[in-house]
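Dear colleague,

Following up on Tuesday's group meeting, I ran the structure prediction for the two-component complex that the binding team flagged. I've pasted the input sequences exactly as they went in, so you can double-check that nothing got truncated or mislabelled along the way. The structure tokens for the whole assembly follow below. Feel free to forward this to whoever is handling the docking comparison.

Inputs:
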Amino acid sequence: MVLSLTTDQLISSVSEIKAGERILLSGTIYTARDAAHQRMAMLIAEGKPLPFPVKNSVLYYCGPTPPRPGEVIGSCGPTTSSRMDPYTPLMLEQGVKATIGKGTRSAAVIAALQKYHSLYLVATGGAGALLSRKVRRAGPVAFEDLGPEAIFRLEVMDFPLIVAVDSMGNNIFERK
Amino acid sequence: MRNNVPKSRITAVVARLCRQVNYFLPGDVWQALEKGGKREVSETGRGVLNEILENARIAGQKEIALCQDTGLVEIFLKIGQDVHITGGNLNEAIQAGVAAGYRDGYLRKSIVADPLERKNTGDNTPALIYTEIVDGDRLEITVLPKGGGSENASALVMLAPGAGWPAVKEFVLRTVKEKGINACPPLIVGIGIGGSFSSVPLLAKKALLREVGSAHPIYGQKEKELLADINSTGIGPMGLGGTLSALGVHIEPAPCHIASLPVAVSMQCHSCRRLSEVL
């Protein structure tokens, strides 16, 4: 079964969404990877606001290639989520409701997903060209000096995802 | 015969190789994915493999990078001893080619100048260059853009010589189980055995340049054995469970010291991009 959901629907139905389910997601998501997370953690520590609307947001661990002229975005697949693990509980505390990446998460992140009632979703790594076809609009939001590590706002349509960890802590990477 | 190769030609060829290698999935990788996909027992796994192949079709058609991680460029040169580079410096010729290829090819610039300061160089240079002097008058250039995610899953160990093949196998399997899941499987696992602390990782990396699934003349049986073991771990495509965890295991041995048994594992994601040209 594949669920077609907007980001609003995803966020309002977090508790009904189960690990292993496939989702085609439509709506606004924000990219952030290593350097952007580091800067956001500093802003939070200084009590300053984050440069994107973090409440009920969806964060995508991605650093795209530049678009060709006439294209919305270049290749834009997920990067390894575990590198963002140290920052994720903090981001969830700020109001991020779902993170998208690839690969496993730490025990601390899985506990935080339950605590803050959030989801971890995965996209297929190395499918950046395919995923670029699912992005309708894209533009930089903050930290443009970081190049590919800047925060971009993406409007996606039917972005293919799998629920890896649900809000109950069920984890598809954990095999019996 | 002496072969005069102008610097400008090297720059142009490297630039083209950098673009093409990032758009077109090599035929051997494509075939291994198709073949493996037919045998994958997990439905999720088959879905992932279909996305990977569809991705390769789109990347090739639209000339968009297969993966947004267009890598640290590693360049392997086989320089015939009768080759003469004219008009300038070989290193400069290659770096200029990489910068042009990544700029004109809309590829990601993923290199920072200093490992701690971490400021992006803006043109994806410097590339790493490995040279080998060989007989003849040809210059062979091979480009391997290496992604960071799979590179981070690589490992090296200095084993006791008496520990032998069982210890080598145990180390490789442990590395794949611990780190392979986040390295975008199905993997190609390059293994160097022997040499020294400095040479064994290069041996492992060069193993990735071989045709996927090709057998080493002496270590072929051991490669087969390890591939079967890796594919029975249950890791599966993108670590989501299944039977296709690796497309190939390539071992490259080398002579070593009586006291040593160095082993390196070079992890390669399914986006195994490499391309060569002979000048």
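Chain A touches chain B through 41 residues (CB under 8 Å).

Cheers,
M.
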